[in-house]
Amino acid sequence: MTSSRGLWSGLVLAGVGLIATCYGLARFAYGLFAPRIADEFRLTAATTGLIGSGGYVGYCLAIGLSTVATARWGPRRVAVAAGVVATVGISVVAAAPTALVLAAGVLIAGSSTGIVSPPLAEAVARWVTEDSRDTAQTVVNAGTGIGVLVSGPVALVLLDQWRLAWVMFAAVAAAMTIVIARAVPGGGPSAERVAGERPVDHGRSVDHGRPAGLVRLLAASAALGLASIAVWTFSQQHVETENPVRWAAPVIWTIIGAAGVVGAFSGPLVARVGVRTSWSGLMILLAVGIAGLGAGAGIVAVAVLAGAVFGASYIALSGVVLVWATRLYPTRASLGVGLAFFMIAAGQAAGAPLVGLLADRTGIAFTFSVCAVLALAGSLLSLGASVGARPSAGSGHPDGR
Predict the structure, then answer these.
(1) Which domains does the chain have, with CATH numbers?
(2) Which pTM was predicted?
(3) What are the Major facilitator superfamily (MFS) profile domain coordinates in residue numbering (predicted)?
(4) Using CB atoms within 10 A as the burial measure, which of 137, 215, 336, 377 is most buried?
(5) Across the 401 residues of the chain, what is the mean pLDDT of every consecutive 10-residue run?
């Protein structure tokens, strides 16, 4: 299929919308409404974290299947399946009569994020030109921030009517499923990539067998998931507890999402300074944001600033992971992204119940400090790593810049 700017720009916009739905609404919105959900079902912090981990467990279970399915059936069918699963999962949460059904809905909804990333990464790799591909991948990925941004004002208006909010989210998910079905081109595993693109040979990063640097990428991805989970699960509860201003928690959540849109620029950042430097610097910023939210939740200005730093750095870091993965697997983007994003979710799935237990025993503020230290440690993981080569019309550049 011959690519055109109109085709791939429509693809990217639809991809942003589906990512916003699956990540921002189906997965992360649980943390936004966790205080009200916990009150209704009388959940402890540990139980709240355990249920929240279901979304990440669902992700881990789904992403392997999605990677295989994308290779076999093509991106469009699998992307549509992600939208359907998100719609079903959100609907189950909205109607949940018991904590057990709630947990099932959270797991189903979270599974949509595992399904959605591989087909969208593959679609961008197939139908976006090489010189725009890194940017397109990170723009689609920044849809997470948009989803979080949208859910914040909804919570502000419907703070005590969380079920109605989730009904609205389900309607959005159904609409985005229709949009993505129209935007992603058809084509199975034999579909052409962009016309005129040359075969890729990136030396050390050739993607047959295990590429050099894969273990470091997976460890870094897990560190991102583990370090970030306290904010995604307990930031709203922490701000509500520490801050007397009623609107502070949903506004800070909205700021996290708005700042996350900045993550769309992580592609150009990687192109300018390289994967290694981008990763280390952004992980340090992530640690600052987590620590700031933990220590400054009671001061609106501090919490807003910390939330902005966290949101921008988290989404940018997931964009760096995406670019890093597609460079290690230049001809099998869905596989590289699937492995890396699996590890992000695995870190979050393992971390959610652990931070819940830690919060019950030591307090949420201390738990945030522990996660900030983990982020600082994770900043070292890109040092000396093989990170693949930047796509170019000419030969590869194995320095990772």
Answers:
(1) 5-185+206-378 (1.20.1250.20)
(2) 0.76
(3) 10-390
(4) 336
(5) 55 93 90 89 89 86 88 92 97 96 95 91 83 80 86 85 95 96 75 42 47 87 95 89 86 89 75 87 96 94 95 90 85 81 88 90 94 96 68 38 34
